[in-house]
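Please check the following for our workbook:

***
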Amino acid sequence: MSAALPGKRDLPASQYNLDTYWGRVRQSAEIADPRTLFVSSAGLESAKGLVSSYKQGNVKSMTPELWNAKKIVDSTLHPDTGQPVFLPFRMSCFVISNLIVTAGMLTPGLGITGTLLWQITNQSLNVAINSANANKSTPLSTSTMIQSYFLAVSASCSIALGLNSLVPRLKKISPGTRTILTRLVPFAAVASAGALNVFLMRGEEIRKGIDVFPSLTETQKAALAKEGKDIESLGKSKKAATIAVSETALSRVLNATPIMVLPPLVLVRLQKTEWMKRRPRMVLPVNLGLILTTSVFALPLALAAFPTRQRMRASGLEAEIVEKLGGNGVVEFNRGI
């Protein structure tokens, strides 16, 4: 993101009011805009140069071109490292990356082998996305990543196979209800394993803490910029890390809910129509269309549930953080996405 680029002057966080949910939705829609995936290396360098010019004081005010450059930088670069996130794992590629995997998991009539393969594929993608977008102030070891991956895969496969075995044994429900419950099994597996995946992949942050910074006004930031100083970390906080990881896990569940619930329910209803009965080959394209449409709208709504740059009172954190801050002020930290 733009915070990782050289220069002491910070850009405005957004064109929108990030203290409101709908302001964060509009900002998340920009970060998730798939058009940024087509920006060339030269286009990225140009955007970085324009953003750096502002941060170094060479550009005096925000312009439409600068806002667009910030959008490209924010959707491409990791906020802690300043390096491009691998393209398939960016939030702007989330809908595309997940489309085929989600369609596979929601395919009606999957057997044991199909269920296992798609759950493993989904968790592999989740691990990659979580790792690529995690807070990098506390790096994750390779051994921890591998262990977390196998635990998440085991959980998702166990839940999916267990529920697929349980639902047909429910004799007191109607066949229609049983069909709906069967179609919702992937949601239960994905939501629970997805949240678990976040905690496993980012558990090192909870154990060691993440960097916490004082929350400064624009005037204070400008004064530091004039002196050529950076905003220094107050230290690592385990409590801030727990909040960051918990909110990210919950946002994963919120994102999975409409994507994994609405398309299968709509498809069940459509499969009862004469049009669909006469065209069984249309099940796959209709399923893909439903998933794509839901994903496009659901992702910004889920990402906006919590601010990416989280602010809170220092009183909720460790005593040494409060002491360094010099009182019960406001601090901020990168939540990760």
The chain has a mean pLDDT of 85.
